[in-house]
């Protein structure tokens, strides 16, 4: 399953040109990353897990907010992670793992878990399983920041290109309900068209 996911991801994007390609497909991409960093603003962030880390753009944005944090990156594409390794400061990167979000997550506890434009590749049941695993890796008072494409209420707001059968976005309410069921206290912190950022807290 992980190999199939990786094959389709590599077909869709070229690692060295990923940033230009994704900016072309997602005009609000840079704003989305800034909003992830804003939503990550909690105290005491030292260990950050980035799921679907790609070329490291989200990790870089979060690191600007938390410069003393150590990063743990997971992505299904070794080629994407190779770009991330070149882009991120080596002394801030603890581990870079090739892995699928359906697999077990790295050992915690983490202060912060982030994921941008990756979770929508999972179906509803897989998302719920992932949220439970993320919850289990966060310390009390930790936060999960989820940035992703969703199914908007107004079909005219569905502007992000999607691949049927590969991209499986949910509605915002469904994501919030699934996060709540996993033990989070989630809130929508930003939205434009079919893009959202959700901050989901663990009770301290």
Structure description:
Strands 3-2-1-4-5-7-6 form a seven-stranded mixed sheet, with helices on both faces. The longest helix is centred in the middle third of the chain and has 14 residues, at 124-137. It is of the alpha/beta class and 204 residues long. It is globular. The chain contains seven helices and seven strands; from the N terminus they run H-H-H-E-H-E-H-E-E-H-E-H-E-E. The protein has helices at 2-12, 18-25, 29-39, 57-65, 78-87, 124-137, 172-181, and strands at residues 47-51, 70-75, 93-98, 110-116, 138-149, 185-192, 195-201. Strand 4, helix 6 and strand 5 (138-149) form a beta-alpha-beta unit. Residues 1-11 have low confidence and may be disordered. It has a single domain (2-201), classed as 3-Layer(aba) Sandwich (Rossmann fold).
């Amino acid at each position: 399953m992980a190999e199939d996911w990786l094959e389709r991801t590599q077909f869709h994007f070229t690692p060295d040109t990923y940033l230009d390609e994704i900016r072309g497909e997602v005009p609000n991409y840079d704003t989305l990353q800034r909003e992830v960093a804003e939503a990550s603003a909690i105290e005491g962030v030292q260990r950050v897990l980035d799921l679907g880390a790609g070329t490291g753009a989200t990790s870089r944005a979060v690191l600007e907010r938390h410069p003393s944090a150590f990063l743990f990156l997971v992505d299904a594409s070794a080629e994407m992670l190779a770009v991330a390794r070149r882009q991120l400061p080596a002394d801030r990167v603890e581990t870079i793992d090739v892995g699928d979000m359906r697999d077990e997550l790295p050992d915690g506890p983490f202060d912060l878990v982030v994921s941008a434009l990756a979770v929508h590749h999972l179906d509803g049941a897989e998302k719920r399983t992932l949220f439970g695993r993320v919850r289990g890796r966060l310390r009390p008072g930790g936060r999960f920041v989820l940035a992703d494409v969703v199914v908007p209420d107004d079909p005219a707001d569905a502007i992000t290109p999607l691949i049927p059968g590969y991209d499986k976005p949910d509605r915002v309410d469904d994501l919030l309900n699934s996060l709540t069921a996993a033990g989070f206290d989630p809130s929508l912190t930003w939205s434009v068209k079919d893009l959202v950022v959700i901050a989901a807290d663990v009770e301290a």
